[in-house]
Amino acid sequence: MSSDSMVLAQDNAAPVLTPPGPKGLPLVGSLFAFRRDPIAFFQHAAHEYGDVARFHLAGLQCFLLNRPEYIQDVLTTHQKNFVKGRGLERAKIFLGEGLLTSEGEFHLRQRRLMQPAFHRQRVASYGATMVEFADRASARWQNGSERDLLHEMMEVTLAIAAKTLFDADVEAEATEIGEALTTTMQGWPRLVSPWFFLLNKLPLPSNRRIAAAQDRLNETVLRMIRDRRASGEDRGDLLSMLLLAQDDEGDGTGMADKQVRDEAMTLFLAGHETTANALTWTWYLLSQHPAVEAKLQAEIDAALGGRLPTAEDLPRLPYARMVMAESMRLYPPAWTIGRRALNDYDLPPYRIPANSMVFMSPYVTHHDARFFPEPERFDPERWTPEAQAARPKFSYFPFGGGSRQCIGEAFAWMEGVLVIATIAQRWRLRLVPGHRVEKMPLITLRPKYGMRMSVERRVPR
Q1: 160: burial class by Cβ within 10 Å (0-12, 13-18, 19+)?
Q2: Residue 310: CB partners within 8 Å, gap ≥ 6?
């Protein structure tokens, strides 16, 4: 064993080892390989070095965990020893102290205040709006035309998030808002760069574009807050809850206007971006697997008989949910989760030092043949109750885990299944020949070139 693999030997204790991993280059470590293709880098590290791999990113010591027990330990059992990573800490410049970026007791307080908006019964009441916007969008399609399904799904989920959470209509602005969001997302690699603060101060055209895009998004969210404040109405939606919230378990106060803005911005963006990506990848996979598509259509036709779905139909659409689950296995919208260790953390025989970064990648774990045989194969049958029960819990974690598990998970599942059922009932989607399909791992996993598909009308049986 090399000297780099053995860190120290404690008296009367087993040696504490440093996990193996790529050496990288002097000073920058594995930064260039990681930036070039982070998914390929993670997959190579897991394959070559095992369930705990160590690497450096420009002086930052990092570890990749790819064992369900370790992932569960970090996200749940010892979650208090970990905080969000460097990228999300820096994202506070735009997102502020929203649920995605806040920490500790403050995060728990905010989550407690917002939880009622995502109660099961309230989420069920959003179903009609989800179906309405999906049906309205697809009704504009013409048989035989070509559409960018990423753009289409972004507009649908944006409209759904705005209406259900904030009772606002942004359909007329959807394209402009979507472009601003895309520009903002493209700045993600800079947030995790070791030279972030220098790059952020330079008069670069990209800095001006990102600032303008963020101003545009701010304008939308602040307008929704301002209009609601002026009306004084309690509409029973998330925005009203934010404005009227009282912390009965804390100091009894509500949220300041800035905090309302931070939470609204976080949920407005996160509430549609991830679901739009999941749906886009689902349409792509269905277009490549006609037998799965036919089984899905048969279930939808039998359950709905030609009418639009409702939230009450969800128990009659189990295969649609299985299709979505398998899509998020192959293309998890949140493809990696990063945490910074506050104190030394032992995974015997290894020790992860304080201030190190720990990465857990749903993409890597979801493609591990130990848990999903033939991992590249699209097979919704993996999601029968029996198959799920046979796998370790954290072999699949598209929504994270622990106290930071996505607050909108139930919302996302219902939205995904209802949108799939609404559109697949009347349309068959086919990838345009020659269209390039490549992954673009930013903060979410987008298709790099969109998803150009031809739409073919079908008649429900």
Answers
A1: buried
A2: 127, 128, 131
Whether residue 268 is predicted with pLDDT greater than 60 in this model: the reply is yes
Strands 439-441 and 427-431: unpaired
CB-CB contact of 253 with 246 (8 Å):
yes
Hey, which residues does 457 pair with through a beta bridge? Answer: 427
Q: How far is CA 122 from CA 116, 129, 237, 335, 411, in A?
A: 8, 12, 9, 28, 10
Rg for the chain, CA atoms, rounded: 23
Mean pLDDT of the chain: 89
CB 25 within 8 A of CB 34: no
Both tokens assigned to 92: 């506070």
Q: Which two tokens stand for residue 96?
A: 């502020």
Instruction: Say if residues 428 and 293 touch (Cβ distance below 8 Å).
Output: yes
108, 118, 302, 346 from 250: Cα distances, Å: 10, 20, 50, 34
Phi/psi region, residue 230 (left: phi>0; alpha: psi -120 to 50; beta: rest), is: alpha
The pLDDT of residue 2: 40
At 297 the three-state DSSP class reads: helix
Q: For residue 176, what are the CA distances in angstroms to 158, 219, 261, 363? A: 11, 12, 20, 30
Pairing of strands 427-431, 452-457: antiparallel
DSSP string for 154-166: HHHHHHHHHHHHH
For 113-150, how does the pLDDT look when each residue is reduced to its tens digit (9 = 90+)?
A: 888 888 888 888 899 999 999 999 999 999 999 999 99
Q: Are the C-beta atoms of residues 429 and 458 closer than 8 Å to each other?
A: no
Question: pLDDT-based confidence at 368, cuts 50/70/90?
Answer: very high
The answer to whether the beta carbons of residues 46 and 66 sit under 8 Å apart is: yes
